[in-house]
Amino acid sequence: MVDIAIGFGLIRFNKVSLRPMWRIREHHDIEKVCRKLPKSVVKKYELWKNLVFRHGPDKLREFSGFHDEKLKGDRAGQRSSRLNIQYRIVYEVEKQSVTVFVIDHSAQVLGEIAMKSKKQARFVPAKSHAKLTTGEVIRMLRELKEWSQAELAARSGITATNLSLLENDKVEIGKKRAEQLAKAFDIHPAIIMFPEYEAKEIGKAA
């Protein structure tokens, strides 16, 4: 049983494993970079952080759309996740901490930043750069799994019609549906139900 306090209320979720939260830091230039990126890329980065915060970077490999992989050569020891066909994240993992070096599409910039050590650059606690809605989170998670709405419906027990309404933020999700979708995606329900709350918690934990 897990309790999540929202405002003055308390929502209790069943059968959610208690994993330690991960600490996420990002290069100080990322805030400036995010202001220039397509909004869809920034929103996917926010979801990326929410998943890492609750489950750690290994969880990213369960979402094939991220194409998460180890880097080689001068960037050995670091990893890369794709946010779309152009942009990707370069990050490093150490114990319960993840350090984000860069979000960029340029191989040259990626190489220059990735080769820097953490002592050569300034990193700050991760913060939110865009607001996420529950509908956006559901749609992005589904697309990252490369599932159709029909497949997610079969896995979650929620009809495709209702999934479409949820993804378009036409209806409130509710605790039961949040748990159904969380089980289908194998993630913490707070990632779906409270994306804005998660963003605040990431900042506190870092």
Overview of the structural elements:
By secondary structure, the chain is α+β, with helices and mostly antiparallel strands. It has 2 domains: 23-125, YaeB-like fold, CATH 3.30.2310; 130-205, 434 Repressor (Amino-terminal Domain). Helices cover 42% and strands 19% of the residues. It has 9 helices and 8 strands. The chain has helices at residues 30-34, 39-55, 107-115, 134-145, 149-156, 160-167, 174-185, 189-193, 195-205; strands spanning 2-6, 9-13, 23-27, 69-70, 78-82, 88-94, 97-104, 123-125. Strands 4-5-6-7-3-8 form a 6-stranded mixed β-sheet. A hairpin with a 2-residue loop joins β6 (88-94) and β7 (97-104). α2 (39-55) crosses α9. The longest helix has 17 residues, at 39-55. The chain is globular, with a radius of gyration of 17 Å. Mean pLDDT is 86; it is low at 1-10.
> According to CATH, what is the class of the largest domain?
Alpha Beta
Which CATH architecture of the largest domain? 2-Layer Sandwich
Please bin the fraction of helical residues: 40-55%
Note poorly predicted spans: 1-10
Which structural category fits the helices and strands? alpha+beta
Query: Based on the structure, what is the oligomeric state of the protein chains?
Result: single chain
What is the average of the pLDDT values?
A: 86
Tally of alpha and pi helices: 9
DSSP strand content? 15-25%
Task: Count the beta strands.
Answer: 8
User: Biggest sheet: strands, sense, closure?
Assistant: 6 strands, mixed
Give me some keywords for this one.
YaeB-like fold; 206 residues; globular; 8 strands; alpha+beta; six-stranded mixed sheet; 9 helices
